[in-house]
Prior knowledge:
Blueprint: E1 25-29, H1 32-42, E2 46-51, E3 54-59, E4 62-68, E5 75-82, H2 85-94, E6 99-106, E7 109-115, E8 121-126
Parallel strand pairs: 1-4, 5-8
Antiparallel strand pairs: 2-3, 3-4, 6-7, 7-8
Amino acid sequence: MPLGDPGGGEFTYTTEGLPRNLFVAVIPVSDPGASLVFYEEVLGMREAYRSDGEIGVMREAARFILRRADAVGVDTGIYVGVDSAYDLHRRLVDEGIDFVQYPKREPWGVSTAFLDPDRNIIRAIELSDGPPA
């Protein structure tokens, strides 16, 4: 139930305050410093900040927090947008990265999934204008 206007007037919500995009995702890692090498050298991200137990990395609009955790090797549920899932697959295969899903067409576009050094699953999907018609 909306609180309305604190001054007692009428107020109608439109789209203010509603989610617009995913800003950052947390990835559990055993050692943020060691993981940083993969995210920088293989995925082309750069360190944005460092604090106790975590390192923030980013590339364009993709932002991750590499946070120290006891439980790693999870399906993160994260899909990063890429220009081409096939090109990403070829590039990461050349880097010796393990895949759990080769590029395939799905309802949202062509996607693929690979493992980071802690065996976390990261997914990638080709950028498109939205869901199929």
